[in-house]
Write the structure tokens for this entry.
Amino acid sequence: MGRPGGYRSPAWTSRVRGSRSNLYPVPCDWPHVLGDRILGVLGGMGPEATAYFISLVTELTPAERDQDHIPMVVISDPKIPDRSEAILSGGPSPVGRALRDLRMLESLGVELVAIPCNTFFHFYEEVARGTSLEIVHMPRLTAELLADAGARAVGLLGTTGLVRSGLYQRLLADMRIEVVLPDEQTQAEVMRAIYEIKAGRKSGARLALIRASRRLLDHGAQLVVEGCTEAPLVLRGEPLPLLDPMEVMARACVDRFKGTALLSELRAELAERVSRAQTRGPSGALLR
């Protein structure tokens, strides 16, 4: 018998008779039974960026077979309220729904949580007070990496909410690193590009973010931090000195679970990029 409204389960699904609570039983000691350490991912901000982060973790994990990879529990919740709207216009806070999702991850025994959204970390302190889970602080980790690599001036591409929040500016100022920000017109172009990427219209967005990155480099940035998780979706592989905080976080997660030294390797690569920045001409081109 179909659901009210005439809905019937499609032929390619199977259903189990019984109450809803019995359909997907998960023992409270599930991770201990499996003997696994589990990485939790709170995503959906946006969904494609979350998928990209998972692919980064998978690519970076040293593995010969499926069983060598890191067990993950992923909650991709696109219903978490818009972070920029909350910061800029007092829109609904993302904290309550995020804490609900984190409680779900906690009940499944995750060891560490990665949240692939830079702007979300404006709310980090409030979220951290509401959960006992360990959360990778992606912006702080990125700032520390830049300081260790000897960076002195970096550009920031991000949502207007992130830029106005001052999150990266404070973190980098603590490391004595100057932040080069887009002018008002360029920032508006960046914000439009970010929402274009979220809508699946990437071609024009890619060009807009390349232009914005070059302007930041022209104004003294040694490299550009991709402070929005949509940016790497269109800028990966571009011949520009870029740093993706999602890659920083992915490397840190793999190091934690696999005992690798991926973050140290990136630190060395970044130090070389910073030193080469002294020989860069306009728009990040290397002077020969």
About this structure: The chain has a mean pLDDT of 89. Strands lie at 39-43, 72-76, 112-114, 153-157, 178-180, 223-226, 242-243.
